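so im writing up the methods section and need the Fatty-acid amide hydrolase 1 record in one place, dumping it here so i stop losing it
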Amino acid sequence: LLLRWQWRRRLWKKVKEVQLKHERGVAQMEKIWLGFRKKHPSVDAVSILSLSLPELTRKLRNGSLPPEYVFCAYVGKALQITRETNCITEYMWESETKFQQAVRPEKPGLLFGVPVSIKDSINCQGYDSTIGFASNINKPAAEDSVLVQVLKRQGAIPFVKTNVPQSLISYDCNNVIFGQTLNPTLYTRTSGGSSGGEGALIGGGGSILGFGTDLGGSLRLPAAFCGICALKPTGNRLRYCKYMNALFWSPPVVAAVGPMAKKVETLVLAMRALLCEDMFNLDSTVPPLPFNEEVYSSTKPLRIGYYETDFFTMPSPSMRRAVREMKQLLEDAGHTLVPFELDNINYYIFNLCVRGLFADGGSSFCKKFKGELVQGNMGLLLWMARTPDWLKTVLSWITKPFGLLINGIQRLRCFTSLSSTVEDLWSLHYEIEESCHKFIAQWKKLNLDVMLCPVLGPALPVGYPGKLAVATSYTILYNCLDFPAGVVPVTTVTDEDEDEMENYKGHYGDRWDRILAKGFSGSVGLPVAVQCVALPWQEELCLRFMREVEKL
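--- predicted struct ---
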């Protein structure tokens, strides 16, 4: 007990030290902004911040807009947003010298002079990638991740790192080091996670382009909650580190790295910049597939599958309305909409997704928390992972008479050591592959190009995601299948949506459904998005569909 106390004391000391370092970084951002305003009082920062990325890069590349003006404008706005939402974890000090030394080359990169924000878990040389763990403090990355290297070669200037939930296995955004990140639209709501710092910063206008990761909706949920766009590519279309999952195990459910921005055209320019020879040479496991302009630029009418519910997480009235309204708009624009029926979503969520994430019964997950400072709802997740298998089974059946079938049996039993042998793990991989082929067969039978479907929204109150892990069903499905998927905000919650919440019961009427109903309530004015999906390796088609949704 004494040794444990001493160890925790040392960890808390490290946390206090990094918090002071964070404050110094914020103070430096303020110094830069105030110094710039004093030096250039006539420069209109608002007009710079209002430029689209194509407009901004054009001005930076032709020399009509100095990189210093752009950098300082975004530092000033990022400073404001992080003070409101607590979204930035580190200011990257060397970014100042980058714009000062930014001499426009004869052939500037596609992102020359553009300040970009980077999620905490993506390695940047000289900076910690804590993932919310105190034990990762003062362990700076030895080199930039492949993603960051390519961004720099394209002329981008990474200037801040952003907040994440502890372990990344959450769609809230809170950890013991940097605290809770709030939604820029309504501070009582979460920004989402795990790329929640990115969602809040970009949603508030403090970054024009950011990058996060997605293992179950970690790009798409913060984007939907904060009213911005995001693209989760096929798992290996882009690369951000030597080992695709920057956590501590390699689950069958596929993680991906992708861009986040307010506009689809920004995502497109980011993908153009990243899908280049530098990416393919730095990591030879990335397939050399340059951005396909012909597919993206096509105006051919699309054949679009759609569904309003996955029959697992009942959509909020605004989620359902968003899909219905987009269906009508797309049909009016000449596209063909075809109903798509999801089959056995329970099997996908529990037998494939959850079982895939915790294929060893949560053993690797628990090891990472050994001796760690734990905060919030991670304690419940750890308890379930650490509970002996026999006790999980007993407790799951005890809950059955109370009607908590999904909440009790499935939640507890999915943490049993399902893949205790190599044979079990091989079986899991086979089941995922087989399910993927069945899904594609259904897709091709209907001759679909893309899919329109809901994404969880509006943003839930702070702390609610920890009680509602299963509500990620709309997004985690496409990690399991490894399909590219993006989100586009299309509407906001109306008074009529709020009135309809009085009749919201959920598909099961259990505790989770009741908590979700409470979380959806009181959300008038908050953004609501739809999800756009394509088949593996068809990111350009997915973006083309997202562009159409955004335009309509």
